[in-house]
Amino acid sequence: MFSRTENFSQYIRLYPVVTFFLALNILIFVLTYIPFIGNQIYLAGMGVNYLISAGEWWRLFTPMFLHNGIMHLLFNMFSLYLFGPELEKIAGKARFLTIYLLSGIFGNIATFFLQDPGYRSVGASGAIFGILGAFGALVYYTKHILPQLRQIIVPIIIISIIMTYLQPNINTTAHIVGMIVGFLIGLSYFHPKRIVSWRRPKT
Predict the structure, then answer these.
(1) Transmembrane residues, as ranges (predicted)?
(2) Which end of the chain is more exposed for a tag (fewer CB within 10 A), N or C?
(3) 125 flagged as catalytic
């Protein structure tokens, strides 16, 4: 399910939303390393709670596309590359888009309300955890139909949560809230009655 066998052109054609976010995150990361303007882009977009309080509300959105170092970027983009396509294929482009964006945004909103005023954060992890949460909802509805999916997804979710609390400098709030939001949206999107209506032939 999560092994990618497509070539480059097939991947782009089959998973345009995932491809867009991969390209956007990588492009912005490169831009932040351009002398003079790169640091300004990073500082203008990172999540800083006291600046959000001062009215810079875009910082609830822009941190999703910034990363603190190459390893941070690679980890998040590899996760998106690996898990995103299957969810985009199952849910569809528009539903995948809402899962990704709303999980990331609500993760940042929760960070704003639950962390101290000086807290700073960047990264797509809230959105990535939203993807895992949506898969969790799919497992909930298909546990008796697709037991192999449960065997794959549940350990990944558990390990991801554990690593969230073991690694330093991690926005645990965005991770956990992003996963919860993805799960709740998934419960709506993947409800058996809704899936039947998606697949019903048009007349």
Answers:
(1) 12-34, 64-84, 96-115, 121-142, 149-166, 172-190
(2) C
(3) yes
